[in-house]
Amino acid sequence: MELEALTKALGVSGFEDEVRQRILNAVGGAEVDEFGNVVLRGRSKVAFVAHMDEVGLLVTNVEEDGRLRFRKVGGVDDKILPGSSVVLYGDGFRVEGVIGVAPPHFQQQQQQVTWQDLYIDVGASSRQEAEAMGIAPMTPAAFSRRYVEMGRYVSATALDDRAGCWALLEAYRRGAPATFIWTVQEEVGLMGARAVSKNLDVKYAVVVDTTACCHPNWTGGVKPGNGPVLRIFDNYGAFNNKLAKKVLEVAKRRGIPIQIGSGGGGTDAAAFFVSGIPSVAIGILTKYSHSPVEMAHREDLRNTVELIVALAEELSQ
Ligand SMILES: [Zn+2]
């Protein structure tokens, strides 16, 4: 499966059906649990994990004049909302929308806007018109899709974490012996991973996610293009020292570039940790995280697949 196809699937947290379907189409014999996580069990002691969901918006109210009030799903910066275009979606429909902002002509002075001042405009002039398009409270809105190659980078919507989903699929395609898990609702508190990790017979979990680039204190001296990042610490503190050392050892032995860094936020690794499964997170450095123009270096994507394959082979016993 191409990374482009995965980034073009819509998957706001809790509404990951399109992403799940693409993954199920690409692998045989996977199960879907009660929560929507996809689990492909292998005869192995190691599980690789990536999350299917992305940050976005959720319609909370359709106003009488057809405007849509919304709330944010996951960590979205208010500053990127005005002027964004979004896609609202549900059973059998996709509707284009924009988040409008008053034009500069009408502004006395530049004002700070928050998400609560904003609304989504889908071109409906009444509640009935919006409802006829399929829109109702609980309709998700994802950022409009975009996928371009720029220099040695890919810039796309939802690289967080379709890049990880893709890397797992590539490793699977190459026959890596492992259990593969694609989780739901990571961006709203690692919910899918919390559920699935309670019900899993593996010795290790290696989470493959993006990691925000770059800040001298938060991330350390990591750089795009220099390899996947072993996240030694983040806001959840999820990091297993023993497993991390093994990962470094395997990467070194196989000649796979790897960097050591730390992250803000957290990953599904924390959920496995509290369920008693030693876990680490491998991060694909991503510029402009949680915006519609995330960027990842192609060499890092390629080396992440190499690292997963190597770890699967060496940790599977
Ligand atoms: Zn992520």
Automatic annotation (TrEMBL):
Requisite cofactors: a divalent metal cation
Transmembrane intervals: none
Binding-site list for Zn(2+) 1: H51, D160, D209
Keyword presence, Hydrolase: yes
GO biological process: proteolysis
Keywords: Aminopeptidase, Hydrolase, Metal-binding, Protease
Binding annotation for Zn(2+) 2: D160, E187, H290
InterPro entries named in the record: Peptidase_M42 (IPR008007), Peptidase_M42_aminopept (IPR051464), Peptidase_M42_dom2 (IPR023367)
One term of GO molecular function: aminopeptidase activity
UniProt keyword Lipid metabolism, yes or no: no
Active site: E186
Cofactor note text: Binds 2 divalent metal cations per subunit.
Protein family (similarity comment): Belongs to the peptidase M42 family.
Record protein name field: Aminopeptidase from family M42
